[in-house]
Automatic annotation (TrEMBL):
Keywords: Copper, Metal-binding, Signal
One Pfam family hit: Tyrosinase
Entry keyword annotation includes Hydrolase: no
Protein name: Tyrosinase copper-binding domain-containing protein
Signal peptide: 1-19
Keyword Oxidoreductase: no
Length: 435
C-alpha cells in the first residue's frame, strides 16, 4: 500500500517534470498583432514598406515554395495549427530583419462575412481588391502590380468566387465562429471546425493564387492565417489548464500526434514549443487578448450584445459560454472600431443612428418597430437584415487539401442550420446591418 502511494507520488513528480519541459518560459517582451484596421498610419506605412521589400527580395516566392512543398503534411490534420503558427512567426521574424518595429497584423474577416469584397481591407487602402478582368492581376493596394516567380512567373492574381467573379460569397459570421469555439471541446474538433469553415472560405473567396498551395504569394494569406492563429489562441485561453497544451488527433499518415513531434521544415521546433502564445519564441499577443481563463473575449464581445435578444433555448444550444454568464464584461473598445461606420438604411428609417455595443440590443429591436424586427414568421420580412449562410467549400479545394467531403459537409451544415435558427429567432447581427 505504502509502496503504491510512493509510486503514485513518483509518477506525479514525473508528470510535473514533463509539464515543465513542455512549458517554455514566459517572454520578457512581446509585440502586439493588431487587426489591420486598428493599425496607426505609421504602423501601416512600415508594414507596407517591409512587404514590398520582402516581395522584391524573393521572400514571397520562398515561403510559397515551402508551403507548396509541405502541403500534404500540414493541412487536414492536427499539424495544421502548430505548423502555420510557426510559419507565420517565421515570416514575421523575416519582417523584423527589415524593420524591428514591423509586426504582422491580422484580418478579422468574420466581421466582413456578409460582403467581404466591400471590406476596406480588400481595397486600395489596404491589401488591394479583386484582380482586373482578363488578366486577374491585382492593380491596387499593397500588392499593386506584384509579380511572382514561383511556381511560375506571372502577376499575383485574384478572382473572387461570387457571381461573375465580381464579389465574394458570404464567409462565416463572428457568431458562427464563436459558436464553433464554444462547442469544440477537443483540439481535433476545433481544428476540423475552423480549418473547414472560415479558413477554407477565405482562401476560396479570394481564389486564384489564394486557392492554391502557393497562396503565400498573396499578402492576404499572412493576415488570414494570423486570424486563424488568433482563433486557436483564444480558444486555448478560454480554458488554459485544459487547452493550452491540448493536442490530439492524427498526422498526415493517420498516426496519433504528440506534443514532442517535430514541425515539418523546422527540425529544431517541437509542437510543445509553439502551443503557448507569449512563451518561448512565441513573443506576440493579439490586440484582443482575453484575460487569462476567460472565454474568447473578443469573439464574444462582437456578438454578445445582440445575443441577449435570443431565446434561452437557442443560447443554451449554441452559446453555452454565454449561458454560463460571464458575458457582461465582454465589452471591448477595439470591437467598436470594427463596427460599420455607415448607418444602415433599416436603422435610418427608424431614426436610430447609434451603433455602439450597448445600443444594439433590445432597445434597438424596439426602435426598429418592436418584437418582430426581421426574419420572423409573421414579420414584414426584410432580407437585408437576415444573416446569409456561408458558401460551402468546393470539390476542387477539398481534393487539393485531402479533406473528406463528408467532414467538411458536416461543418458547413452546422453553420447553415445555426444561421437558419438565428434568422428564425428574429436575431439581428450587427454585421449584416450595413447594406
Ligand atoms: Cu496552409
Amino acid at each position: 500500500m505504502k509502496l503504491g502511494f510512493a509510486s503514485v507520488l513518483a509518477s506525479l513528480a514525473a508528470l510535473s517534470v514533463t509539464a515543465q519541459d513542455q512549458t517554455p518560459p514566459p517572454c520578457q517582451t512581446s509585440w502586439v498583432r493588431k487587426e489591420i484596421r486598428n493599425m496607426t498610419p505609421n504602423e501601416w506605412a512600415i508594414f507596407n514598406g517591409v512587404q514590398n521589400s520582402m516581395h522584391r527580395d524573393g521572400w514571397y516566392d520562398w515561403y510559397s515554395q515551402i508551403h507548396n512543398t509541405l502541403a500534404g503534411l500540414i493541412h487536414s490534420n492536427s499539424l495544421f495549427f502548430p505548423f502555420h503558427r510557426q510559419f507565420i512567426l517565421d515570416f514575421e521574424s523575416t519582417m523584423k530583419r527589415y524593420d524591428p518595429k514591423a509586426f504582422l497584423p491580422y484580418w478579422n474577416s468574420m466581421v466582413d462575412f456578409q460582403r467581404p469584397d466591400k471590406s476596406p481591407v480588400l481595397s486600395s487602402q489596404f491589401l488591394g481588391s479583386n484582380g482586373v478582368a482578363g488578366s486577374q492581376c491585382v492593380k491596387d493596394g499593397l500588392p499593386q502590380n506584384w509579380n511572382r516567380k514561383y511556381p511560375r512567373s506571372g502577376c499575383m492574381q485574384r478572382k473572387y468566387n461570387g457571381p461573375g467573379g465580381n464579389s465574394i460569397n458570404p464567409l462565416y459570421s463572428p457568431e458562427a465562429i464563436s459558436y464553433f469555439m464554444q462547442i469544440s471541446s477537443t483540439y481535433k474538433d476545433l481544428r476540423n471546425n475552423i480549418e473547414n469553415s472560415i479558413h477554407g472560405a477565405v482562401h476560396l473567396g479570394i481564389s486564384a493564387d489564394m486557392a492554391t498551395m502557393n497562396a503565400p504569394n498573396d499578402p492576404v494569406f499572412w493576415l488570414h492565417h494570423a486570424n486563424i492563429d488568433r482563433i486557436w489562441s483564444n480558444w486555448q485561453s478560454s480554458d488554459l489548464t485544459k487547452r493550452q497544451y491540448m493536442y490530439d488527433g492524427t498526422n498526415a499518415y493517420g498516426q496519433p500526434v504528440y506534443l514532442t513531434d517535430t514541425l515539418p521544415n523546422y527540425p529544431n521546433v517541437k509542437v510543445n514549443q509553439v502551443m503557448a502564445v507569449g512563451r518561448g519564441s512565441m513573443c506576440y499577443s493579439y490586440d484582443d487578448k482575453p484575460a487569462q481563463g476567460s472565454l474568447s473575449r473578443r469573439d464574444l464581445a462582437q456578438t454578445v450584445s445582440s445575443l441577449v435578444t435570443l431565446p434561452q433555448n437557442i443560447l443554451d444550444k449554441f452559446f453555452p459560454a454565454v449561458t454560463n454568464g460571464t458575458y457582461n464584461e465582454f465589452l471591448d473598445e477595439t470591437v467598436t472600431n470594427l463596427l460599420p461606420t455607415t448607418v444602415p438604411n433599416v436603422m435610418q428609417a427608424n431614426g436610430v443612428y447609434s451603433l455602439n455595443l450597448t445600443d444594439v440590443t433590445k432597445p434597438l429591436l424596439k426602435a426598429l418597430g418592436s418584437d418582430k424586427p426581421a426574419g420572423g414568421k409573421d414579420c414584414d420580412c426584410n432580407s437585408k437584415v437576415q444573416m446569409p449562410k456561408p458558401a460551402p467549400l468546393t470539390t476542387a479545394w477539398l481534393k487539393m487539401n485531402k479533406i473528406s467531403p463528408c467532414k467538411a459537409g458536416k461543418v458547413h451544415k452546422l453553420a447553415s442550420d445555426f444561421t437558419d435558427e438565428l434568422n428564425r429567432s428574429d436575431y439581428i447581427s450587427k454585421f449584416v446591418l450595413r447594406y
